[in-house]
Amino acid sequence: MSLTLKSRITLNDGHSMPIFGLGLYQAESSSKTIQIITDAIKLGYPMIDTAEIYKNESQFGEAVKKGIKREEIFLTTKLFTTEGGCEGCQKSFKNSLEQLATDYVDLYLLHAPQGGHVIEVYKEIVKLQKEGKIRSIGVSNFGVEHLEWLKQAGFVPAVNQIELHPWWQNEDIVNYCRTNNIAIEGYSPLGKSRFLDDPYLIKVSQKYNKTPAQILIRWSLQNGFITIPKTTSGIERLKENMDVFDFKLSDEDMKDIADYGKKNPQNTGWEPTKNGKDKFGPI
Ligand SMILES: NC(=O)c1ccc[n+]([C@@H]2O[C@H](COP(=O)([O-])OP(=O)(O)OC[C@H]3O[C@@H](n4cnc5c(N)ncnc54)[C@H](OP(=O)(O)O)[C@@H]3O)[C@@H](O)[C@H]2O)c1
């Protein structure tokens, strides 16, 4: 099947999720972000990824108040820590809904396996789902060990959002998610822009007459990763990052890019998947 901007993945709970969207980490709490969200949605971006900790949920809310159609957007937000238990979760979720100016989110993620009380909080989130306030439940930065603990407690999340690009392929987690029917969402698909001037990547981009950023986004998509490149610098980059559906990387180049990244593995973020059980807390 060929990929399009509107392609969706069916999740293990029966809901579907776009394969492409806009990430908002480090997008300012300012009118600039309201504008970027509005521009992205006007251009056809089907999904927005934010989080309690990004402090820009209210910019999405403002865009809704200014007229973007909430029901046409797949909206993800995240609970930063489970340390506040069920009460903390209810409080954070209520605050997120208020900031986002909506009465439901499409996907609610546990941002990382941190804070303890994970199972009781997960159960609380299931209650919110039953009340219709959350469509799908997912996790982020969960390693294989964390996912196994969840599974033992009877929960298989719909999505796991982890850092993914050629230089950080997290293959053990990807394989586990594929085997257990958990959709894989890759964050930092551009490696936070750290690799865009890599000479090998530039060579590949010239071969396809595309930019290095487009090659990396396409590499994620062809791997079956839901991808959410972030840009707040203006409409041109928004357009560039979505202009990845008119070409296909050959199987050989897909493998070469992966092999190239693997030679020099580097993550660009915090990587909590590597935390042990102590960080996950009692289950
Ligand atoms: N769950 C988690 O723990 C977690 C962690 C990290 C990220 N995320 C999510 O994943 C999203 C994406 O990851 P990310 O923000 O870390 O990094 P990223 O998308 O890999 O890279 C973003 C950086 O690349 C630049 N950029 C974007 N498009 C470009 C282009 N076409 N050409 C050149 N530079 C370009 C951006 O600058 P400008 O903005 O100036 O264009 C920004 O500096 C986040 O925004 C967030 O929603 C989740």
TrEMBL record:
Identify the residues that the record assigns to the NADP-dependent oxidoreductase domain, covering every copy. 27-258
Q: Which PROSITE patterns match?
A: ALDOKETO_REDUCTASE_2
Q: Sorted alphabetically, which InterPro entries does this protein's record hold?
A: AKR, Aldo/ket_reductase_CS, NAD(P)_OxRdtase_dom_sf, NADP_OxRdtase_dom
Keyword Oxidoreductase found = yes
Disordered: region residues: 260-283
- The residues that the entry says bind substrate are H111
The answer on whether this UniProt entry bears the keyword Oxidoreductase reads: yes
GO molecular function term, any single one: oxidoreductase activity
Where along the chain is composition biased (Basic and acidic residues)?
Answer: 274-283
Supply the alphabetized keyword list. Answer: Oxidoreductase
List of catalytic residues: Y54 (proton donor)
Give any Pfam family that matches. Answer: Aldo_ket_red
**Record site feature (Lowers pKa of active site Tyr), residues:** K78
User: Family, per the entry?
Assistant: Belongs to the aldo/keto reductase family.
Name of protein: NADP-dependent oxidoreductase domain-containing protein
Organism for this UniProt entry: Adineta steineri
